[in-house]
Amino acid sequence: MKTPYYLIHKEVLDEGMEKLKQAAADYWPNTVIGYSFKTNSLPWVLRYMKAQGCYAEVVSEDEYALAEYMGYENIIYNGPVKGRDSFERACRKGQIVNIDADREIRWLQELCAAQPDRTIRVGIRVNFDLEGMCPGEASGGEEGGRFGFNYENGSFQKALEKLQAISGVQTEGIHLHCSSKTRSLKIYEAIARMACRIQTEFRTEFKYIDAGGGYFGGLANKPQYADYLRIMTAVLKEAYDPDRTTLILEPGTSLICPPVEYVTSVTDRKETSRNYFVTTDGSRIHVDPLMTKKSYFYHIESRGQEGQRDRLKKQVICGFTCMENDRLFELKDAPALEEGDRIIYEKVGAYTMCLSPLFIGYFPAVYVEDQGKIFCVRQKWGVNEYVQKSAEEAAFHI
Ligand SMILES: *Cc1c(COP(=O)(O)O)cnc(C)c1O
Asked: How many angstroms separate the first and last alpha carbons of the chain?
């Protein structure tokens, strides 16, 4: 197998899924899992999640179409910019549509006016002051989150009243996904508290609470699914009946980050007056496309005898692109790396293969390892895939 490539360990994926299902069964049996497409939408992964009984959690017209293409019967449609066609299709089919914008309320008014005998069930996304409840932890920080209708300034109430005034629309759920810097238990306690506050204040009989995603997964020293579920359900039980309320979870990272590796090879090493560089055929753009991570999980497989090699004070491991900042990590006081050595990055399944650019090298192959056998689930992209749908001369009528 030619490097670089991604390798998905199916048994690790199975194990995470099993833990999630067990935690749900233990704490809130009436739970639905919506897999977050945007986190990793490789077709093999989407097929796997569907086979596991997950709903599709999508946030755009394209993702909605992908969920349909993959044969998902149950779709959760979120996001601030839904397409009108897919929005109406989702409403008609009784999918879970969480309203996130005024224009969606207007679309509902128009849809119901055109077809008065239809019932459309929707949810509403809540924007609330997570940073106030968990100082220093919310992704938006002092600037606040930008999704949903704000609870504190009355926008949520207004949106709820507008939805309740449309005959034919039933507001059945609230969506409280928040991204955080910490993925801490406190975040999910705050989400559950907010769900209870809304229930007590507005006395609407919500049929579902959507707690969103953002959990840790596969890290022994971090919270587990059971911890998140324990803390959320203890709070939710103060205002909701577990037999009559569905809890929706939308995991992405916690499921698909742990089982994926990225395998690269050393191609060259060179010494400069200032440094000792190790070049590899992999790149930071494949494990950290947004160039924000400060460190990576990795291990090194040396070809041949490490013991006989010189030890170097510092080696800078670099990628194949021609960007100076395509530097992955530094090795301190370690045996010199040599051509053919492998560097394998671990836990790189989230926001990597679906977010990487087609920059200098095209998409690498993806393999799945299952009980010792290896299957290819995406061939490496080449020029044919790169040029598809492009014309070299003016050719498309608009
Ligand atoms: C991104 C996102 C998720 C998944 O988040 P992870 O951190 O990958 O678990 C779930 N729900 C919504 C609405 C999202 O935007």
From this structure: 43
Q: Per-residue pLDDT tens for 75-106? A: 999 999 999 999 999 999 999 999 999 999 99
Residues 6+ apart with CB under 8 A from 252: 35, 36, 37, 38, 39, 40, 57, 213, 350
Instruction: Select from 39, 188, 216 the residue to mutate for testing ligand 1; criterion: most ligand atoms less than 8 Å from CB.
Output: 39
Residue 308 has pLDDT above 90, yes or no: no
Taking the CA of residue 79 as reference, the ligand 1 atom at the shortest distance is 13
> For position 284, what pLDDT does the model report?
97
Distances (CA, A) of 129 to 99, 133, 138, 323: 19, 7, 9, 39
* Ligand 1, atom nearest to 39 Cα: 8
Nearest-CA residue for atom 10 of ligand 1 = 213
DSSP assignment of 106-159 equals HHHHHHHHHSTT--EEEEEEEE--HHHHSTTTBTTGGG---SSEETTTTHHHHH
Task: Give the model's pLDDT for residue 203.
Answer: 85
Distance of CA 356 to the CA centre of its chain: 14
pLDDT tens digits, one per residue of 238-263? 999 999 999 999 999 999 999 999 99
354 exposed, middle or buried (CB, 10 Å; 0-12, 13-18, 19+)? middle
Does 312 score more than 90 pLDDT?
yes
Q: Can you tell me whether residue 78 is helix, strand or coil?
A: coil
Ligand 1 pocket (Cβ < 6 Å) reads: 36, 38-39, 57, 59, 78, 177, 212-215, 250-254, 350
Counted residue by residue, the chain has a size of 398
Give CA angle at 175 (170, 180), nearest 5°.
170
Instruction: Look at residue 113 in the predicted model and tell me its pLDDT.
Output: 94
CA of 377 to the centre of ligand 1 (A): 24
Distance from C-alpha of 263 to C-alpha of 250, rounded to nearest angstrom: 28
- On the 0-12 / 13-18 / 19+ scale of CB atoms within 10 A, 387 is exposed
Residue 191: both structure tokens together: 């989400």
Cis ω on the peptide bond leading into residue 335 (within 30° of 0)? no
